Amino acid sequence: TDTSSPLLLSGTASSDIPWAVKVEDKAKYDAIFDSLNPVNGLLSGDKVKPVLLNSKLPVDILGRVWELSDIDRDGMLDRDEFAVAMFLVYCALEKEPVPMSLPAALVPLSKRKPISVPGAMPLIPSSASSKDSHQSLPPVGILAAKTPLTQWVVSPADKIKYDEIFVKTDKDMDGFVSGVEARELFLKTGLPSALLAHIWALCDTKDCGKLSKEQFALAFYLINQKLTKGIDPPQALTPEMIPPSDRSVTLQKSAQGLNSVADFSAIKELDTLNNEIVDLQR
């Protein structure tokens, strides 16, 4: 709400607004980018997360940094997007608040498009409640109106259908479906057990060996995608797949994933613990 901030420039993000990332800082960020072994000039979330976590910033702040810096919404960061992420992290470390939507001055020149609509829809961070997300923000005219990340891939109609199956499967009525309860139902789909195990692991975002109603609905959504459209489940959940109630914790879990890239001892310890937990569950 600080309208005097130089980053909150209204109007379109045109090329005459200089980029907020300084040349000398960009060189520093580029060096970090190259050290993370980008593929085709892009870094996946798995490679960027350890770097973000190393800042020791709260997970919800890091989630917003990721959302703001992945400007083209492809789940990867290119060189310029990575510089935006680093810039925001350093701002946050200097106790500057991370903005709710990307200021015009921070949009890389390579990503700027003329936008005819004044004040495009600001991005709603996944952790914001619907009440907070409707607070008026200064028009920043950067992002064309996109689907807010709060929209879930499971449609309301499908959710009702999957909830009915959930209630029948949850034999002990504890509000969760365990692996034992779901096993027979999953195998009836005819999909390979390795694929079903991968879907289960994706949906069990808290690694607790059981699925909540939303996680169960997501599992059935992924199974149906494979059965009806031949679409394989992803290696990691995309932002719009994450069940709404899990959105604040998923970054934390995926950051403990197996693809740790940099030598951060804390991440490695978490990996070891995570692997041990998975082995125990098996």
Automatic annotation (TrEMBL):
Residues 25-113, 158-248 form the EH domain. GO terms for molecular function: calcium ion binding. GO terms for biological process: endocytosis; endosomal transport. GO terms for cellular component: cytoplasm; plasma membrane. The keyword Metal-binding applies. SUPFAM superfamilies: EF-hand. InterPro entries: EF-hand-dom_pair, EF_Hand_1_Ca_BS, EF_hand_dom, EH_dom. It comes from the Eukaryota. PROSITE patterns: EF_HAND_1 (PS00018), EF_HAND_2 (PS50222), EH (PS50031). Pfam families: EH (PF12763). Keywords: Calcium, Metal-binding. Residues 57-92, 157-192 form the EF-hand domain. PANTHER family: EH DOMAIN, EPIDERMAL GROWTH FACTOR RECEPTOR SUBSTRATE 15. This is Epidermal growth factor receptor pathway substrate 15.
